[in-house]
Every structure is written in structure tokens, then in C-alpha cells.
Amino acid sequence: MTAKFLTKKYLPRRTFLRGNGTLLGLPILDAMLPALTVGAEKLIIPSTPRITCIYMPHGATMRHWTPKEFGKNFNFTPILSPLEPYRSYLNIISGLTNTPVGPLEGEDAGGAQNHERAAAAFLTAAHPIAGSRPIVGISFDQLLATKLGQETPQPSLELAIEPSNNTCGDVNFTCSYRSTISWRSDSVGMPMENNPQLVFERLFGSGTTPKQRSEQRIQSASLLDSVRDDLQRLNMNISTRDRAILDDFLQEVREIERRIALLDSRLNEESLESEKSQNIDVPQGIPINFEDHVNTMFDLQVLAFKTDLTRITTLMLAGEGSNVRYPRSGVNEGFHNASHHSNEEKNKEQFAVLNTYHISVLKGFFDRLATIPEGNGTLLDNSLTLYGSSMSDANEHNFSPLPILLVGGANGLIEGGRHLKVADQTPLANLYMGLLNKFGINQLSFGNSNGILEI
Amino acid sequence: MKMDRLGKVVTLTVLLIPLFALKAHAQNDLLENYCFECHNIEDYSGGLALDILAHDDLLTNAEQWEKVIVKLRSGMMPPPSKSSPSPSERQEFIEDLSNKLDTLWSRSPRAGAPDLHRMNRKEYQNAILDLLDLPIQAADYFPSDSVSEGFDNIAAALTVSPTLMQAYVTAATTISQLAVGDINAGTSTTIYRSASGSQASQLDENPIGTRGGISTTHFFPLDGNYDFTIGRTGSNAAFSLSPVGVTDPIELVIDGLRVAYFDPDEALKTRLQVSAGPHSIQISFVKTQNPRGVDDLYSVWADTNSIRSVTINGPYSPVSLGDTPSRQKIFTCIPHESENESVCAKSILTNLATRAFGNHVNEGSLETLMNFYKNGYELGGFEKGIQYGLARILIDPQFIYRFEQQSENSEKIGPLSSTEVASRLAFFLWSSIPDDSLLSAAIDDTLLEPATLTKQVSRMLADPKAEALIDNFAMGWLGVNQLQNFNPTDEAFDNSLRKSMLKETKLLLKDILLGNKPLIHLITADYTYVNERLAQHYSIPNIRGSHFRRIPIKQHRNSGILGHGSILSLTSAPNRTSPVLRGKWILENILGSAPPPPPAGVEVNLTESTPERSNGEGSIRIQLEKHRSDPSCASCHDIIDPLGFALENYDPVGRLRALSNGMPVDTKSTLWDGTQILNSSELIDALVIREELFAENFVRKLLTYALGRKVEYYDMPSVRNIIKNSAKDDYRFNSVILGIVESLPFLYRGPDTLNAVTSSKIEEYNIPNKSEISRVLR
């Protein structure tokens, strides 16, 4: 069932009637796509795939994740079985490791602190340093945003399900390591938004009519222009460090100016906002139910891809260390507790049930992408989703072998339907290098990479 | 042998540097007798070699020595299994060492320097309310802020992302428009949802004789017509078999007056004329019947038959901008002729900018604002001009950041200016910008006179805005807000219970802190605050209604916060209690000594499997005791677990229990220092004896919050001074706050180079290793 919260006064009844026969209700897509994509057919399909990185903390019961067979003729394991319909789009990559999750010499070697680092290390493949100031490295998605996302009004979108900061752990680490997987630079984590309404406003601007949104863009542009000028003239006796902070502020002022200009020209040229879209209701608030919430976030990503407002998205399905309970999974233990199986068989089986549930929810994304025609195929053919965790067996807090999936046609750049085994101790960063390479981005190294995983 | 040799070296060196290093008599003997066995250069336990440190200059290793003081004071070192110094030896050593450190620091004080401090979103929300009398929900505009050190106001973590910058721009334009009013703004839609849970009884804020529903305050941008659509669940048909299967009518109340009444079968939609500004709105069922003796049935019915949301859409055919509190606050003058317009605009914008920036507005800034005024004026006249100027104020770095000038001598600490202190005060005590009184004291430069400072602090603490200290400091310190994400298997725990638990804790914190009562009352108060929902959960009879009232608690539960459902729940696993989490919570939040993280492969997945009745095999306690038979676990868990065992008489959602999984609960335990306790009230007695640890932890946390940065070892002389001075006053909130406000780190600023982390250090941490390029094996 989809949430009622998006229904609106003029959502045509036939939308639901049509939706009833299919798998999904797709409230946002059904309601908004036709209106917002007037003219979208004129958009050129990007030559590189739209990329989504999805993080799920706490690893998995690997024996029920990893297929026994390698290559093309693998058999689906229980956890991955919900993805059977997408076999030809799937690459299961086994054997990767992400050592930056672990302690350095001199740091606590117990392993519990790996939870402090796991989420931040996932897409950065860099070691998050203890302290109240975050220091890690640029993340894979943000690097892609700088390389592939500059033509879209939003270089990237960062989404979450749980509110940030709800799973702070060790007070010696900043909570931002646990609450975002997306890092713009060593020290700037991208806030992950869990409110669909704010995501929508970020894409289309606030205001209820195109005219209002356009006026707001004009006013915003002049405000930013003035702040930029003043900051450049600013002659204040402040410390070097504070000046550096203002420089960062200035950089973001410029960035938002750029984005507004891009959005403005896009909306004018492509008539994305036509008369038809005048009365579109913005999604309101946060769905209460996990599945509804995730599906809404999937809808928004698909919408953003289809309208080419962004090409890169990240989604954090749960906060690191989250002990949330998933009532519909059939497991009563909290997520984090369930991952600590104490090496008892029945607990490992129970955790596998939870892992399977998560994969079945993930499938909803591909169901959506597959319904959107684009070029000769669908959005699923022109996208690539990376799904995985920074831990393997969370009972041990270890980070090898990681559960990692790639799903999507990737514009034909990556062959599907395979279970790939990498050499032991191959850094996750090498996979990022391999993907960057596929997308034509030349990078000498990334995070702790020591090579390129050719995929 | 090596030990001996090193020992001698230590003694010799110490003799050579008698003043700055530890003296070679009793103090050093204590280290040698009780510490060196593990904390030596060979064993290097806990990363600490005291035998080496002992012959260095004291200040060189001040950070480590402060750790030694903390561990010794808490009594957690030496570990329970080793021999310990006598209490008097211990005390003497601590005093001597801390006095030496304090003396040395007083000769070359350090003050630290927080990063350029950005407002977090809660502060932004408060600032908008204070500046413009406009209630906003910051979460509608901004992403949440990062938490470090337990708080979301730590400067080092408040970075700026593009997402945030975009939010600042949107907020500036939207808020300025709402505040000034814009007749052409168009319509907007807002949905308010009810909390989940039963709607059987009356909500606190809603009228008597009603049940359930929603209560909120909505800001209506213009005088005009607004559509109200009420969403509800349940219907007569679904409950036709129920003896109470009748749907109640629904009423809509604005500012205390019933403006709409819906019969059960009517469409729940109406269009009403509403004046601009904030109005309180209540929607609830009108109770037409409440049969006695069927309360349970009724509540089941009410769960499925409830008001779920209200959607407010408008304005339609707006008539005027109205006379909102925001407009009254902004328009301090009204131009009657066109030549007065820019004079008046200048006065309005100067006034707003002064308050927003917490300082004089310089010529350059004023010129910028007037340019924006002119741009807006050309588009839509005087009011549009003011709106443009206001938007510019709201995006100005002088509003978003709190600037502090670097002292002339970049090597040394320097005093903050009075406006800088005013800002620090306002953000500390109110989570907002300075008000007029504080700002004028700062601009007059009288604020820094001790008498004025004291007077301002008392005035500010008496202001209702000081409640921000409870919401942002106290609730954050105790981690109570984490209850939002606690999702236990026990079905009794619904959202209404969660909210009630949070409110109980908030009310007690407010009573003791803002009521200026002795700090220890937080764990000894023999009263608490409950409503019907919470009382029912606690099995306290005869409490009716959703409002909170103060009741004596001792005959029912433990006194103080350790008897609160909130704390007992958030330290549980979803399906069982966790003595480890409860013990850890007490250590971190009350005793101020966080245990180190557990070693690899620990078993935390304890399940309360069916106990074999004869020996209780499988109980949480037995499993933990088994676990502690491993010496590597025992060194910490001997300290953590006993604290938690004492609270085993509370179940995972904080109800009292006599049995746990069929076995009688066992609350007996032995604390790390050998103190035997029988039950939870003896645990509280044991904590009361350690009041000083509690106070020290409290001061450190409050100072962290006040400064917006980590409290460092060089701040410890100030911490000790604050503790010493407030001890006479039982560590009451006002004395601790005054102590902080008058302290060196609050009034001074140091050079910032010490905090800087160079990029070379980052590289050093993330060196790629140079092994072969790996390939996929197909």
C-alpha cells in the first residue's frame, strides 16, 4: 500500500484505477510525472548512467547472501532472491574489503568504533578521524557529482530514511560520520534529507506556482550575488581558520548561484513547468511507515532522473548502529541487535530474514525504474545502483568480504547477470576506480585504492 | 629489572626539576605503587606510560594528567582486582596534582578558540521568532545539524553544504515574505498530522468535553479565506457491531472559539475567513457519549476511529495584509509621504539589522540593505522594498555566523568585546540572538562590568526563553531525545506514551534546573510529573486527564530521573532490558566516565531465552556473569553491569516488575569499589555519595554546550574553579551558569592555530598501499 499523504484533490481517479492493475501505486510519479515532464522528451539522454548509491548498515548473513557459483550461472541465494526478476541487470561482487573502517595503529582495536567509521568510510574509502571535527575524504558520489553532475541543476541528491543524529554512539567521534555517507570534501558531509517535501522543494524550488518559483529564483540570485560581493570585500580581523570557513561559505554561495541559473534556464527552455503543472501538490511531511517512506524516496529519485534535474543520488536506508525494528520483516529484534548474532545459528538465520526483507524493499526501486521508458529501453537500462554495506559480519565488526551489488544496465557499459569474485583483500575503493574508469573519469587513485577493479 | 632502572631514572629526574614535575615523595610513591605496574613503557596499558610522563614538565603532559585525575577521582582506577590507595592518599594526590596544574596554567592561560560559529536550525528558528515575532518550523527549511560531543551547537561540526546554502536562500526569501506579507503570494498548503495512538481521551490543549484530535498553531499569511479539510479514519459501518459504534461529531476551534461543527456524516471540509497572523487551531471529536464500564472497548474503537490530519489551504481572495505581530514588530515607522519613505526604510532596516547582527550596522552593510530596498521598491513599492532588505539581512553572514575578532596579539589570549559576549550569552541561555536590553548593555559597553553581567544573567534565566537550556542542553546531555527512535516490541509503548515520558523528564529537569534547586535533586527528587497515560503505565491509580501534574513518587517508584520511563526505556533493547546499556548510561551521564568501547567479537545479542527454572540459566544476568568470567571483559563490565543490575526491577519500557521471564528479578549487586547494594534505591544512595562526580560531569557538559566546543584539558582549571564555587550552593543551576559566564574560556579567546588540522595529516591517514592491481576472476 502506498501512503495516503500524497493524494490530493485533483489526482485523477483513473490514476488509481490504472495503478491497481500494476504492482505499484507510484503516487508522486503518477501524479507529477506527466505534468512535470512536458518537454522532457526533448531532453537528451545522458551518455553516462544515472548513479544511485544505497547504503545499508550492519552487513549481512553472508552465507545466505553470497551465491556458491561464480560467473553467469549462479543460483540465487535466499537474501538476494527478491532480485531474481532483474537477474540480467545484476552484478554481485564478492570478496571486497574496506579497511578504512578499521582502526589505525594506536586507535581502539576492539571493533565497536568501526561503527563510528563504517558509514562515512563506505563511499569515501577513507579513514574517518576521531574528534568533534569531521575529517574523512571526498565520497564516490560527490566525486561523480563534480564530474558528471555539473550539467544538471542539482549535481546530486542525498536522501535518508531515518532522521540524522539519531544514532550517535561514541562521544569521541562526531555524529556526522554515522549520519551521512556523502562527503563533499574532507570535512563537509552532505546532510541527508529524509523529508520528501524538502527534497521536492530542493528540486523544483519552493512556492506553489511556476510564477512564484520563478520570482523566488530571481530574488535568490540577487541575494547571493550581493553576499558574494560583500564577502569578497570583507575586511575583518578574524582568525585564519575563520577566514577559511568564510571561504567555504563563499564557495557554496557561488555554487547555489550557478545552480539557480541552470535551473532557471532549464525550466524556461524545456518548459518543464508548464501550465499543466501549476496545481501540483508538493509532497507533505514524512510517511510513518518504512516501506511507504522508502518508496516515496524512490519515486523522487526516479522523478529527478527522468526530468534530468539530477543524475547522482545517494540513499541511506538506515542510520549506522540503528536499532530500529521493522515490523513487516517478521523480526522483532532491533536492527543493530539482530546483527550481533553471537554466532548462534538461529540468530544468523533471523538476521538473514531481515537482510532479505531489505532486498525486497530495494527491489521497489528497480520496479520503478523499469516502468519509465527512455530511449529504446527504460531508466533501468540507463542507470546503475550500487547497494551495500561497509561491514560484512557486524557481530565481529569486520569489513571483509563485503556484501556489494550493482544493479542496472549502466547505458550498456557494464555487462549484467554475473557473480564476480575478486582477489582477497581487494579494496572497495578499487571498485570505485573501476566504475570511474568506465565512466571515462581519470583518477590516479581514490581513497585507499591500490588498483582498478575492471568490471 | 628494567622496571627498577626506569624507576630510578624517574626519581632522579624528578629531583632535578622540583617545581614543574611531580615531587619525588608521597605523590610519586602513589604512582609507583599503584599505577606503574600496568601504565609503564613496556605494557603501555590504555596507551599510557606514567613512568615516562612523570619526569617531564607537568604541563607538557597536562592532557594525560587530567585523565589520571578523572580515573582516580571516580575510583575506577586502579581496577577492582588490583590493590588501591587509601581514600585519603587518593584525595591528597588528586588535590596536589590539580593544584599544581592550576598554578602552572594561571601563569600562561589558554582559552581555546571555537570555529566561526554558525547558527544551527533551532537557533535560527528562535532568532526569527525574536527578531520578527514570526513562528516558523526550522525543519521545514533546513537539514538537521550534525551532533558532536552530544550537542548540535558545536562549531567545528556546523559546516556549510550546498544543501544548506540553498536552504538559507529559500528561508530568507520565504520568511521575509511571510513576515512583511505579500498580497500576491498565492496559495499554499500545509498539513498537520495527529500523533499516533489512542484518541479516546481529551488532549491537553483541546477543549473539555472533546476527545482526540489535533492542536497546532498556524501562521495565516494574509486576511482571506482558507480551506480546512479534516482527514479521519474509521466509520460507523466498521464498528456496527460495537456497543459504542457511534461516530462523534467533530468541531473546529480557532483561538478558543468553535468556528465549525461537523455532524458525523458531513463532509469534513469548510472554507473560513481568517485574519492574518498566527492562530491556534484545535480539531477534536465532541464526546457525545462515554458509557461507563466500557472504557477498554471505547479506547480500541477510538484507536481506529480518529482524526488523522488537517489540511489548511489558502488564502483565497485575500483582502489585505492584515495586522500581524510581525508587521507590528517590523514597521516601527510608517511613511506618510513619499520623501519620507527612504528615511523610514533606513530606520526600519537599521533596527532589524542591529538586532539580527547583534552589533552596530556598519555603513557598507547599510548601503547594501538600502540597495535591496530600492530594488524591491521599484518592483512593488515601500513594503516590497522592506521585504527585499529583510531578505538580505537574513542571508547575511553577520546574521548566520557569530563573528569574533582575533586578538591583536595572535600568540596570546585576548578578551572578547561586549557585543561578542552578549552573543555568546544569548546563544548559551536562549539559543537565540540578544534582546534589546542585552544588546544595549553591550553597545553601551557596560555589560562587562561584573554587576551588570550578573544582573543580565539572572534576568535572562528568569525569562521563559531560558527553557531552551532544557530542550537543547539538558535533554541533549541525558540523550533523552533518542527515545524518539526507540521502537520496542512491547505494544504498550505507543507514541502517546513516548511523548508523555519525554514530557515527564522535561518537566523535572525544568523544575530542578530553572527552579534553581540543588543539582542532586535530579536523582533524588521524591516527586515527578505524570498524566493519565503515564500514570496508567506506572500503575499509579486515580490520575485522570492528559495534563501533567506533580505527584509524590516514592511510594510507587524510584525518585529522580532513574525512575523515569524515558531513561529506563532508551537504555533497553527493543525486546529486553540491557543492564549494560543502563550501566553505561549512568557512567556517562551521571558519573562522567565513559567506559572504553568493547573488544572484538563481543556478544551483545543476549536473548532472554526460556530459563531453566532451577538455575536461571539463560537469564540476562547469568549470561552477563558468564561473560564477565573472561578477564578482558571483566575489567570494564565489573564497573558497568552492577549499575544496571540494580535497575532490573524495571522492564524494557520502564514498568516495575517482580518477575523477569518467570524468575524473580535480582537487583543485588556489588559496585566497582566493593559497595554492596540491594536494589535500585540503594543505587541512588550510592550515586548521591558521589555527588561531586555528578557535578563535575554536569559542569563539563554545560561548559561544552556554552562554548560550542569540546572542553579541553587546558580548560580544567576553570572547570575546577566553577565546581569549587558552586559547591557551596549545592551546584544549583544559576551558580554553575554564572561560574561559566565569568570563566576564562567564556570571556576570552585564544589563538586558533592549535586547533588546525593540516591536510598533510589527512594524507598520512589515508595512504593507499602499493599492492598489485587486482582483477576480477571470472
Entry summary:
The complex is a heterodimer of chains A (455) and B (778). With 455 residues, chain A is α/β, with parallel strands linked by helices.
What does this structure look like?
The complex is a heterodimer of chains A (455) and B (778). With 455 residues, chain A is an alpha/beta fold. Chain A contains twelve helices and nine strands. In chain A, the strands form two sheets. In chain A, strands 3-4-1-7-8-2-9 form a seven-stranded mixed β-sheet, with helices on both faces. In chain A, strands 5-6 form a two-stranded antiparallel ribbon. In chain A, a hairpin with a 2-residue loop joins strand 5 and strand 6. In chain A, helix 6 runs parallel beside helix 9. Chain B has a four-stranded antiparallel β-sheet, with no helix packed on it. A four-stranded antiparallel β-sheet of chain B has the order 3-8-5-6, with no helix packed on it. Helix content of chain B is 44%, strand content 12%. In chain B, a hairpin with a 2-residue loop joins strand 14 and strand 15. With 778 residues, chain B is an alpha+beta fold. Chain B has 29 helices and 19 strands. The interface between A and B is large, with 128 and 109 residues.
Descriptive keywords:
heterodimer; A: 455 residues; alpha/beta; seven-stranded mixed beta sheet; 37% helix; globular; B: 778 residues; alpha+beta; four-stranded antiparallel beta sheet; 44% helix; disordered N terminus
